[in-house]
Amino acid sequence: MAGVEKFRAELDRLDAQLLDLLAGRIKAVHEIGRMKQRSGLPVLDVERERELLTRILAMAGERGLSQHFVAQIFRQLIRYGRSTQEALLTPMQHRSPVVCYQGSRGAYSWLAARKFFAVRGGELRLTGTETYDGAVAALTSGEVDYAVLPLENTVAGFFHEVIDLISRGACAIVGEEIIPIDLCLVAVKGATLASLETVYSHPVVLKQCAPFLSTLDGVRSESWIDSAEAARKVHDDRQQTQAAIASRHAAELFDLAILKENISSNVHDATRFVVVAKESCPVDSLLPAKTSISLTVPNQAGVLSGIFSAFGERGINLGKLESRPALDDPRQMRFYLEIDGNGADDNVTAAIETVRRTAGSLRILGCYVDRAKLETESDDLLERARGSVQPKVQPPGPVQAKERQRQAAAPAKTAPVRPGTKGFKYDVARGGERSTVQVGNAVFGGGSFVVIAGPCAVENHEQLDTAARDVRDAGGLVLRGGVFKPRTSPYSFQGLGWEGLRMLREAGDRYGLPIVTEVMAPEQVRRVAEQADMLQVGARNMQNFDLLREVGRTDRPVLLKRGMMASIDEFLLAAEYIMAQGNFRVVLCERGIRTFETAVRATLDLSAVPVLRERTHLPVCVDPSHAAGRRNLVAPLARGAHAVGADAIMVEIHPDPENALCDGPQALSGQALAELVEGFG
Ligand code: PEP
Ligand code: MN
Q1: What local confidence, expressed as pLDDT, does residue 79 receive?
Q2: pLDDT digits (tens, 9 = 90+) for 511-566
Q3: What's the rounded Cα separation, in Å, for the pair 190 and 531?
Q4: What is the per-residue pLDDT for 93?
């Protein structure tokens, strides 16, 4: 233990150093912002940041650090820097503001308030109110300096009550904040899904989770003041029959167990909050800004299109248009508008004045920094920077002499020129260097020939256990098995789902093999990634762009299969989708394409292997099983793949092919697999 203590002390020392460095960095960012402001230079220097990020990611690569994680860290750092500069350019009137929010400690509004004011220094005093009304009343009476209120949610839509309160109240929007919503089902320790009777949360939250809640038989939902108060109630009552839907943060705050996470019906759930003050606050022209307006116009033909043209003709984008009832006067229509632009800009002022001429009433509710734009700009920068960074090439694994010869016989590895093809950033083979992707003991692209094998689908314990043992005994390095099966007919066996995944994980562990399995929907990805060592995107999903993006956000290697109607360009652009999200660990898999030929299940495009090796740095795998469709063709095609320079093959096996629930005719026996692998030496 003495050794552990020593390294813990070392970690503590390094963490303290990291924080000192972070503080120094923020101070420098602040000083640069100040100097530029004084000299009138633009604060955002895109070129300079691009150079800086390019250098950082290259340095990360040289140090053997994961570019994926370094990219994530720097994404946050850039956001932090930008917020610091934003705070400098939009100074708040109050040094130690009193801020109220609707709800209680731990609620998302509370998180939004803390995030918004965190970069502004000074002591922050936060106070919760029961209603939105109460928050606005506290602001207008001068009891508090700011109120933080939710304006819209990706699932539940606009908070109309809040828009109406701000439109009517003597206050102005001075900022906005976007908070990702990580809704979890939380309960006291010992509670299970089966023990639950009632789930409490804010009504909007219950609406967001309605599809999940409908899967809980006999469980009632009950509206509560907010998600954090619901968590507090569950904590105070100590009943295993109760659960709350709340943030991970609230679960920690009230010492509750998470029974299920990410239960919102939208994977990219987020809420946008507005920060409201008594007086409006100008936004420096160096920052992207939005202006909110509330107006009433006569209920007549052409009036609305007049508003659109007033902005459109001046090149101003209308980001939001919400209709509100004007029940007191049916001759009027009432709207809430958000325009992309600074309320102090002459062009924006002119457009607003044009609209004002036709409007019954018009009120500018405030001008504030466009949070999404501020953050996306940083992301775009990062993406652009990463586009010019060479992916890290891991040291190759042990290479056998025979392998070296075979690899040497493969075509030239120099970077190709692809006139006329646009959009390829990450796949280009740079200077002939090839990437390696490691999964357990298997190193794809490292010079050795990797064999992935296993059943088409996980069917039952016995079938999987025998197949896994056969894979290990044959010298296969990765175990495959489908649990979510993309079947042509909806009536065919669809896979065992999560239960199958658990069985596959166990079989992999039992035989010391990493596992690869297919994901079919973006919602499955995070959960599958917790269990699987490698994620497969099947041929039918090669252009499921949401799925590609989602696997790109994980840190799991991806086996991307070529679509049966996909050109090589399309195949590579699909790989780009994954890598553009920061995940460079992609292995391409040729599995046969559809041609006029009907003698085989699919035409194995062996020429794709040298072409892919010429055009990308990514490892290339071949699946002879799905191409052949017949067991007697699998071995010759596998040998062909080896001969043309593939880095790996994926082969289907089954202990009892005649009774297989899926793809039996192409499944090899364990013995046939062993003979095939033996042949590769
Ligand atoms: C598979 O490998 O299980 C599969 C379904 O293959 P493909 O997506 O290539 O048809
Ligand atoms: Mn199959």
Answers
A1: 75
A2: 999 999 999 999 999 999 999 999 999 999 999 999 999 999 888 999 999 999 99
A3: 24
A4: 72
Amino acid letter for position 560: L
Contacts of 444 (CB under 8 A, 6+ apart): 436, 437, 438, 450, 557, 587, 619, 621, 647, 648
Q: Say how many Å lie between the CA of residue 552 and the centre of ligand 2.
A: 24
Domains of the chain as residue ranges with CATH: 1-88+380-416 (1.20.59.10), 91-180+269-281 (3.40.190.10), 184-263 (3.40.190.10), 284-368 (3.30.70.260), 438-477+520-679 (3.20.20.70)
- Cβ of 663 closer than 6 Å to ligand 1, yes or no, is no
Mutation pick for ligand 1 pocket among 520, 561, 600, 601 (CB with most ligand atoms within 8 Å): 561
Here the tokens at position 240 are 């295993």
> Which of the given ranges, 16-20, 32-36, 342-346, has the highest pLDDT on average?
16-20
By DSSP bridging, strand 361-369 and strand 450-454 are: unpaired
- Atom 6 (ligand 1): residue with closest C-alpha? 538
Residue found under tokens 């085989």: 600
Query: What per-residue confidence (pLDDT) applies to 388?
Result: 40
CB atoms within 10 A of CB 44: 16
Residue 282 has a pLDDT of 86
How many Å apart are CA 452 and CA 640, to the nearest integer?
16
At residue 412 the predicted structure's pLDDT band, cuts being 50, 70 and 90, is very low
One-character DSSP codes across 574-616: HHHHHHTTT---EEEEE--B--S--SSSSB--TTHHHHHHHHB
Question: 585 CA to middle of ligand 1, Å?
Answer: 19
pLDDT, one tens digit per residue, over 438-449 is 999 899 998 899
Tell me what percent of the residues of the chain surpass a pLDDT of 70: 89
626 CB under 6 A from ligand 1?
Answer: yes
Helix 568-579 vs helix 608-615: angle between axes, to the nearest 10 degrees? Answer: 40
Pocket test residue of 492, 494, 540, 541 for ligand 1, highest count of atoms within 8 A of CB: 540
Alpha-carbon gap, residue 613 to 413, rounded angstroms: 7
- Nearest CA, atom 4, ligand 1: 538
C-beta 235 within 6 A of ligand 1: no
Distance (Å, whole) CA 636 – CA 673: 12
Instruction: Find the 365 Cα to ligand 1 centroid distance in Å.
Output: 55
Q: Which residues of 437-453 are buried (b: 16+ CB within 10 A; e: fewer)?
A: bbbeebbbbbbbbbbbb
The residue whose C-alpha atom lies closest to atom 10 belonging to ligand 1 is 539
Q: Which of 520, 591, 651, 662 to mutate to test the pocket of ligand 1 (most atoms within 8 A of CB)?
A: 591
Burial class (CB in 10 A: 0-12, 13-18, 19+), 144: buried
How many residues are given for the chain? 681
Helix axes 346-358, 303-312, angle to 10 degrees: 170
Cα separation of 369 and 341, whole Å?
Answer: 10
Residue 168 scores a pLDDT above 90: no
SS3 of 14-65? HHHHHHHHHHHHHHHHHHHHHHHHHHCCCCCCHHHHHHHHHHHHHHHHHCCC
Distances, alpha carbon 633 to alpha carbons 599, 605, 639, 665, in Å: 11, 14, 10, 11
What span, in angstroms and rounded, lies between the C-alpha atoms of 513 and 531? 13
Contact 563, 575 (CB under 8 A): no
Catalytic residue positions, numbered: 271, 273
Give the number of whichever ligand sits closest to the CA of residue 589.
1
Q: Is the pLDDT of residue 635 over 90?
A: yes
H helices then E strands: how many in the chain? 23, 25
Q: Is 601 in the pocket of ligand 1 (CB under 6 A)?
A: no
Distance 665 CA to ligand 1 centre (A): 14
